[in-house]
Amino acid sequence: MSSNGRRVSRRDFLRATGLAVGATALAACAPAAPASVGPAEAGAPAAAGATTEIVVAQYADVVNLDPQDTNDNASYGPEKLMYEGLVGYNAAMEMEAQLAERWEASDDATEFTFFLRQGINFHDGTPFNAEAVKYNFERVINPDNALKRYGLYNIIASVEVIDEYTVKFTTTKPFGAMLATFAHPAGGIISPTAAAQYSDVHEFGKNPVGTGPFKFVEWVPGDHLTVEKFDGYWNSDAAAQVDRITIKPVPEAGTRIAMLLAGDAHFINQVPPSQVELVVGGEDVALAENESIYTYWVAMNTQIEPFNNKQVRQALNHAVDKQAIIDVVLRGYGKITDSPIAPRVWGYTPVMIYEYDPEKAKQMLADAGYPDGFSTTMWISDSSEAKEAAIAMQGQLAEVGVQVEVVPMEAATLSAERFKPAAENQSQMNYAGWSPSTGDADWAIRPLLATESIPPTSFNLAFFSDPDVDAAVAEGLASADPEVRQAAYAQAQEAIMDEAPWIFLWVPTTLGGIRKEVGGMLIQGDGIAYMRTAHFVE
Amino acid sequence: MFQYILRRLIGLAPTLFGVTVLIFLLLKVVPGDPARMVAGPDATLEDIALIRAELGLDRPLWVQYVSWIGDLLRGDLGTSTRTYNPVSYEVGLRIPATLELTAISIVIAVIVGLAAGVIAAIRRNSWIDYTSMVVALLGICTPSFWLGLMLMLVFAVWLGWFPTSGRGSWEHLILPGITLGVGAAAIIARVTRSSMLEVLNQDYIRTASAKGLSERATILGHAMKNALIPVVTIIGLQFGYLLAGAVITESVFAYPGMGRLLVESIGFRDFPVVQAILLIFALQFALINLAIDILYAYLDPRISYESRR
Amino acid sequence: MKAAADMAPALAVDRSRPRSLWSDAWARLLKNRAAVFGGVLVIVLILAALTAPLIAPFDPIKQDLRSSLQPPSPTHFFGTDVHGRDIFSRVLHGAAISLRIGALGTLIGATIGITLGLISGFYGGLTDTLIMRVMDVLLAFPGLLLAIAIVAAIGPGLENVIIAVGVFSMPEFARLVRGSILSAKQQEFMLAARVVGARDVRLMTQHLLPNVLAPILVLATLRIATAILTAASLSFLGLGAQPPTPEWGAMLSDGREYLMLAPHVATFPGLAILVTVLGFNLLGDGLRDALDPRLRV
Question: Using CA of residue C36, residue C42, residue C43, residue C48, what is the dihedral sign?
Fold first, then answer.
């Protein structure tokens, strides 16, 4: 990195410091000749054997590199360089075949057979085959291992090796979302020989071995993670285009942007909307934007007054000016959601939008018996973005007479409060967002709005319990037929929109920053960095 | 004195024992479920139960405490619940980083602070005095997130003199060192000025100034030592604070220090790491304060640490 | 050196010359131009805090998302924040809360800290050991953890943030006072006073304290800034002033997101804190001089 030009074009710098230092003063004293650093200088593509290295700054450190023991996006991003699943999602969140060539599912969604690609080796030389797949999933569903993704896969009853390259899964009950569950980033296949050599199952997470285009070099917690090109990668079309990728944890957004502008990082994972203008339209840098599969919402506790009244819930949906908040807080990088789930989630159906209409909201509140509104509290996390959004809603709800006390809480405290059992749970309104990592409607609806998911079990912060929705969710799981499932989820989405357990807000855009001399990196819709096609451009 | 030091060192043991109990109890009072944090937001109750057992959090409180202390006495700090790395490894990575950064910022703070304080006192009520005061107050009021980012933009992004962030060469230390040192320098400068004024205003110093220069210098030197006591106290405290890590500065410069590790570990309820770090901090402060007490006795030999009665 | 009995200013009613002590100090304070300036600043701030509802041009919590992040202008002297609120009005309204947190928090921390430091330094031995070891532990404990514990234990109110800020600043005062006491109690006037048979409390408050007042005042005036900035980080954890209540520290933190694009958001609350600290600091310096026994010849 140190060989890279650290200087930055004058215009980028002015954008960065802008008003802070006084643009005119700087323009006067800055050198007249543009000090722009050409892309070529800042890390030319492998000129005759020189190693090429991409540096990425991401918002948090890696926690673990064992996909079966991971539940954070900061770890999944790097893992996706080293691992592949049987199936997986591409950058546009479309399912694609990875280590499996094709697959079959029984109609009742209990048996799933995968026909594997041949001639693939793990980084340590172990051949990839049906035995390896069997080892993987038996490892994760073994409760003694206490792996974090146990709950995701323990629907699997047995794994059967049919022949060397065919493997059959049987589930404990019909599970229509099984294919999507295999595509979950936790479904990355690990090398059985590498994993088996440790007596402590968690050791593997520090010494990862997969089949992906990059292999592990080192991880120094708090400092960096480095991977390098795997020469024995099976798919020459998708092989690594750079020699090394180094990922650094940089928690402060302003610092990530400074690194990008200075050329100390080629790609930064997450540009907050509040600072997006520093990256947009730069000479050397650009915004890497991508539509997310997140939806943001305010869950209302439907089991207590006044939120047990549907009219009240609908009224609040009319009282919030979502577009205004998107324009200001998200700087326009998002769109109003017209369904409880995002368009790129499989099974999405557009339903409707509650138009911003404070008069109507007031009228509905009066009709519901709250002509003078009421007082309530809204729990939020301690992030700036959550605070800004919540304050904006607080102001808008006050216009219709609803006095909201915004209560920010530190993450672990908030989680403890939110997951208290229903009887002692103090939730009234909760501002949150969710992305289904499986990319499937089931994981977008069931944990949030099914009766079975009411705290402490899962994240149903609306304490929403609706027989129609429960039935539709069950129907969606009972079949492997996409059409049947699609119809069931459409029904669920319509019922949810009408019942309005949430104030439906927006689907944000994922925002990364990238230098113009590189390409092939963005943040996927599920918030995970996609870096495997990273390359230098001429 | 030697006896005193020995006694204090022996006294560390019960202090640290008290600290362990306190830390342990406080962490249990703090809301938040470590198992839930490990399992993640989309975990099932089964996941959480498995992890709770894996982490040993399903055992009675006293059993957890005894097992922690037992491991501690054997030199085992435990395993991070976040990364499953040994705590000694996680902490061991950060200690040298924090020591380096502390060293440079305390040096900056002491040199700048003492110099500014002494000059301001000698040139009392001059423009130098007022300028140094305003600068010092700016130093205290400027949040490190602001100062750090501005230094980074000017000296790293624009001028390219230093790297933006991270750890590596000595160049990586300069900007965070200044960011951290400024606040400490400001406090040291103000306290030094005030202490110097005390000395300069002593009757006998003023008398001495009439009696010729060399005698005055001697007396001044003697009185100075005395007046340094608050300065030494403040420097010691600042040193301790710096060793305890500066989370904002470390975050701004993406510097892998103790402060960030501690805050992240608290956020994650990674108690083995938090416990180990707090124990280290308590030990650091105890040792620094012992060093300060010894310095007191050197600065003012009349000081004794015996009980009055 | 003057006998110590008549140098105890604020804390004791000195029987011999109560009036002259105060009037002397007062006269000296008024002669000190810097101190008067500091005093004026503090008074202006207090007046701003008291009259904010009358003089603020806008409602401090009234949002207008369409005029988000406007730079300073004749309409909005200090510009607007992300929610389109008038920062000038928010700074005025925030004065009441921030001054309270800064001054009261520091006062609480200083009072307890000074008391503990006095006792510790004066008695020495086991008392000293116990108090100072507790201070060591407090110093080592991260504010974040204490704040989380405080929210959990006693709730998120504004009084609690003042208590928290007080607890954070206590050990520093205690150590500072103790260090100076260790030295001061060895001086001749103390031995003299002891021979005369003065009681402990009297020795401490009337003889020792005045001798260590200078560094205390310096630390206290600086601590006000730290207190306001600490309150900001606590408000993020749900402790203290909550949105949309204007409070300088929180406003400054809000500006952190916009340091580069809209620097005025952080600048003006930052300047308000600076002016406050400057005022208290000048006043503190002046007070110190006015009360300095050695200057009263």
Answer: positive
